[in-house]
Amino acid sequence: MREINGRTKVCGLLGYPVEHTLSPLIHNTLAQALGVNLVYVPFCVEPGRIGEAVRGACALALAGLNVTVPHKSEVIPYLTQIDPLAEKIGAVNTLVRCEDGFKGYNTDMTGLQQAMKEDGIELAGERVIVLGAGGAARSVAFLCAYAGASQVWMLNRTPQKAQEVAREVNRAFGRECIRGLALSDHEKIPAGKYLAVQGTSVGLYPHSKDAVTEDARLYEKIHTGYDLIYRPGETRFMQLVRAHGGRACNGLKMLAYQAIQAFALWNDVCIERPLADHILEKLKEETRIHE
Ligand code: NAP
Question: How far is residue 66's CA from residue 38's CA, in Å, rounded to a whole number?
Fold first, then answer.
């Protein structure tokens, strides 16, 4: 048991709901391993109350915060500074204490970038299919444009949302690299092999038998399927990708790296490979319960 004393820094997560978060496990393990006097706790912040929460956190001198659904965009007006990339994306998941308040960052995007790099995925020049157009898929779309993907097809149940994200990303990067389509219109995607990033919430535990589509014609186009879901460890989408000869990864590394990067920003520390591996092992153990 770590000692909590008058010098203990407090960090936490602002979200709604927060009951099932794995972030305390990651950050408290990092703090313990690195000997940083810090505790990380979840804070349940109702929709519409994020401004109050940020002002309260500032008054309480909290050292750093993560922000999750539904506050990732709503929190921005209450920040005193924002990282240019996070500003472009229009969503932040990490707040770092600064002199007069908090500075916002988006480590979801940079965490996914690090995770993909480690899994041998190169986005520059790649043709990508993004499934979904919610918060997570939006970060993927920005990452694809930022990292130089040649062509991105964003497929969503509600096509208008995909088209809106595509417009925003194309405008932000000054090139027409993304197109938004209805999920059912995947046949309009030119023949060839693609990296597909699964960013919908379909297939998330306990609905582990579901995939956003079962259509073999889509899976035949996928050389690598990257599911952002990490519970279960092998999703139905991943099974379908593998059944059609593709390689498949889950979202556990993204989860780990967005947190590791946030911890590094709060504490000005570098987290080396063995500790990152230890975190990944702990997360695998924890999520195995939900197979
Ligand atoms: P979100 O903003 O609520 O977006 C949900 C997306 O799923 C939307 O595109 C929605 O389509 C689609 N969808 C939901 N139900 C559907 C259905 N029955 N059929 C077809 N499409 C459906 O959620 P989010 O925050 O982006 O999260 C999405 C997933 O990413 C979650 O499973 C989450 O666990 C995962 N995630 C992982 C990480 C990580 O670190 N690995 C980080 C963030 C999120 P409509 O627009 O048509 O409603």
Answer: 14
